[in-house]
Each structure stands twice: as structure tokens, then as C-alpha cells.
Amino acid sequence: MRPGAAYLGRPAMTTAAPADPIRLRDLGHKAVDGGRLTADEALALYRGLDQPSLGLLAHDVRLRLNPPQPDGSVRVTYIVDRNLNPTNVCVTDCGFCAFFRSPGDPDAYVLPREVIYQKVDELVQKGGIQLLLQGGHHPKLKTDWYAELFRDLKQRYPQVWIHGMSPPEITHLSKMEKRPVRDVLVDLKAAGLQSIPGGGAEILVERVRKVIAPKKASTEEWLEVMRQWGLMGGKGTATMMFGHVETDAERIEHMQRVRELQDETGVFTAFIPWTFQPENTAMGASMLADRGGMKTTVAEYLRTLSLSRLYLQNVPHIQSSFVTQGMKTCQIGLSMGADDFGSAMLEENVVSSAGCTHPTSIPEIERHIKDAGYVPQRRNMMYEPVETPATDRFGNPAGQKKAVVSKVEA
User: Fold this and answer.
1) Chain Cα centroid distance, residue 191
2) What SS3 state is found at 374?
3) What is the pLDDT of residue 205?
4) 8-state DSSP, 110
5) Hey, which of 85, 130, 214, 349 would disulfide with 135, CB 3.0 to 4.6 Å?
6) Spatial contact of 406 and 352, defined as CB atoms under 8 Å apart
7) What is the H or E stretch that residue 303 is in?
8) Angle, helix 219-231 to helix 181-191, in steps of 10 degrees
9) CA 336 vs CA 32, 102, 166, 322, 364: distances in Å
10) Where are the beta strands (DSSP E) in 125-267?
11) What CA–CA distance (Å, rounded) separates 110 from 140?
12) Between the CA of residue 252 and those of 256, 284, 311, 338, what are the distances in Å?
């Protein structure tokens, strides 16, 4: 009997007509055995199964795609990096974002190069290996500005991996400079860009994007950046911000576009679903009204996480998000499809601007992984294991101050 078979066919609580338990059982077996679910089949599982059933199926798939070690232990990975936002100036005016400032706003900034160097110095001192570098759509900062920054960073810190410039930022540069996306990518790669984060995907459905981010890159523009990057041999991640105006079917449509592009290019190393944080955002109240005043629940987050593992079997890793969900929910996600705990960020400004902060230390991340029954493993962007340096009780190299995952400054 398959590990999750005893749980299959138990419908979730719903006001819709009861699901066919035989069909749910068969669909669950199909997913566990590596079959490719259709959008309708995925929706049936999402709406028809309760969370334990959905989670057990996703965990079976997770163990097949990322199997136990020879000694029987199961690893959960994480990375130590810093999320650096060189500017918060942005002209897209996304209603869901509490981080951006319009040009000329008193709180608008472009970080001086010396401040950026100081932040990377702190990253290196604390054992970090990656710089997640993304920010607003500044109307004056062009490709040359970012290329110069990347060259300087690689000269000063050759050991630090630059994971930067989300697809909408690349699209913005392409439009400002009136030249192809691929040319922008070629210049940035030559300057030191090594991988691209999946930010700005939100929901890859035009109906949704026209509501929440009408000035941002379209679905096809987002995909085209990742397509060109993949064709150049590059790697990146895919994200999904959900829990606002999208439907269940549109979440699956988003995953389908990710899956199709992965078939085409193999560009994605991981999929990272996270929930809309409405506090301090222009559209928060109206979006919550559409959901009956309710933020996305933990149960809804976990169901979506599990479904992503079942549907996106050509993407090797699924990340659980403690930044938006908290450590305990992230820990539960490790048994419901996720194999990665995300990033032990030394700085995070975007989500925390919406009032969502879950400070923690690197030892706390490892403790939660161990308490869930897994072995923590530091990794790099390519999901290759990296050696954990000798640390003090706070998880920092000897003599360094405690590394905290939180908002450091605005």
C-alpha cells in the first residue's frame, strides 16, 4: 500500500457537491507515482481532499524527488543570505506593496555604494554566501548602474553569489532603454549576475495582474525574462503571492505556466509560494473585503503548498516560508511537501514593511528543522550542500554578534 493510501478519498469540508472518493484516490495515486496532473485534476484534489490527505500525498512526492540519505536521514536545506534593496523608488505603484516610494517621496532612497559595501561586509562576517539583490523600478537607474555595482561587488567579494534583479526589473530596464531583454541579461551576466529570483510573479494571470499591478510586467513579459535567462544557461526561482483577488483555478493556472516554462528551459531550481500581507498597503482593505475580511489562513497556505508539490514535479524543490507564515507553520510545511526552509536572511524589508516580521536566529532555524525530524543542511543557490562554519551559540562565526532575521533598516 502506498504511504498515503489510507488517507485518500476523505473529502475536505466544503459547501460544494461531495467529491467522488474513488476519483480522488486514483488522482492521488497518479500524483504519487509521478503522473502529470491536469489543471482540472489538481483543482479536484485541492477542493476534494482534506489537508492531512493532501499533505501526505505531497510528502510522498517530496521523498521521491528528494530521497533520504543512505543512512535513512532526510535533509531539509536552507541558505544564509542578505536581501539588499539598493532602492525603494518605484514607478509601478503596486497596490499590494508597502515597501515602495514614489520618486521625490521624503522616504525615497538609493543606497550609497559605501552603505552597500558595509551590508555585504556584515553578510560575509556572519557566514553568508549569497546576496539577494532586488528593489524598485527606478526611473533613472539603468543597466549600466547595476552592471557597475555587480562588477564592484564581484571584485570585492568574489565568494558572494549575486542572486538579483527580478523579471519585472529586467523588463523595466528593457523598456527604458528600448532594447531586447536578452541584451540586458547579457550585460548583467557579464558584470556578475549569477541567478534571478522569482519576485514579481504574484499571480501569472492577466486578469489578476490588471487588478493588483497594472503597471508591472505582464505575465508573458515575466515568463520571457526567465525564458531568455534559461536559454542562456541561467537558473532562478519561481514564486507565487496568493490570497488576494485570485481564484483557486488561477493559482493552478499560475503553476501551469511555471511548469510549462520549466519543461522548455529547466530554469527553475525551486518554487516558493507565499501569502499576501495586506497591512500598510494601498489595496489591503479592499482585497480583504473581497475575501470576507479574512487574511489567508494557515490551512489555506498549507493546502496550496502541498498542491504545488503535487503539480510541479518538474521543479526539484519547494520552499516553506517562515518569513510570512512564522516558524511553526513553516515547520509543518516540511511534512506537507516542502524540502527547503528558505533563507536565513540577515535583512528583509519588503514583507516587513507590510507589518509581517518573524525574527529568528540561524540556530533557531536548525532547531525547528531537527524538531520536525529532519537534518538541517546549508546550501547554495544551486541546492548544493555547503559546509557549516564553526559558530558560537548564536550561530555566528566566533566573536561576531548575533545574526538576526529581521528588518535591519528601511
Assistant:
1) 24
2) coil
3) 98
4) B
5) 85
6) yes
7) helix 298-311
8) 50
9) 13, 40, 28, 14, 20
10) 130-133, 161-164, 195-196, 235-242
11) 11
12) 6, 23, 8, 17
